[in-house]
Amino acid sequence: MDDVTRPEVVAGAAVDAGPAADAPPASVRAASTVMALQGLLLAALVAATVLWEDVLVTAWASDNPAANAVVQEGGLTALDESPVAVPDFVPLAVVVFLTLVPIGAVLAAMLRHRAAWVRSWLTAGAAGGVLAAVLATRTGAPLAFTVLAVLAGVTCVALLACLWHPATTRWLARPARVATA
Q1: Which helix (H) or strand (E) holds 3?
Q2: Calpha distance 32→44 (Å, rounded)
Q3: CB of 2 within 8 A of CB of 167?
Q4: How much is the pTM?
Q5: 3-state secondary structure string, 93-128?
Q6: What is the domain extent for residue 146?
Q7: Tell me, what's the pLDDT at 138?
Q8: What is the DSSP letter of 14?
Q9: Other beta carbons less than 10 A from residue 92's beta carbon
């Protein structure tokens, strides 16, 4: 139930209605769900990177003249043995996953606990995610990665919508209810 329909909200001010008054609105719960979905998409990206690393290297090599020449003459094996520096996609994907998922989990928890400043950080991250998704669709990456990039971009837009929903704004503006003994 959103703040607008909850009886304990009168003219935008919270009336102490017990623990239910501190429950986050649907928009904040939806933001947490979207962030969990983003973690799953990152896990899928890591799995796709591991499974199709050769496809990624081939796509990368097609845009690099020196690497492309080596691949045309001797394949990916020749590229591994050449002086051309090939990007390590798997370690990069794993590090991104191991960095962003825990940070996202902490920020989601802090948002649910009414840390209003978190919205700015999540907004910046989501805007960066939209930009990364747009750029990823323009790289000529394999279809699976393009689909994952588009899905990630859509979840970033959904997160922005949740973060800036009026119910989220009202909820973050209210002071947290402090339990007294």
Answers
A1: none
A2: 19
A3: yes
A4: 0.80
A5: HHHHHHHHHHHHHHHHHHHHCCCCCHHHHHHHHHHH
A6: 31-46+88-173
A7: 83
A8: E
A9: 12
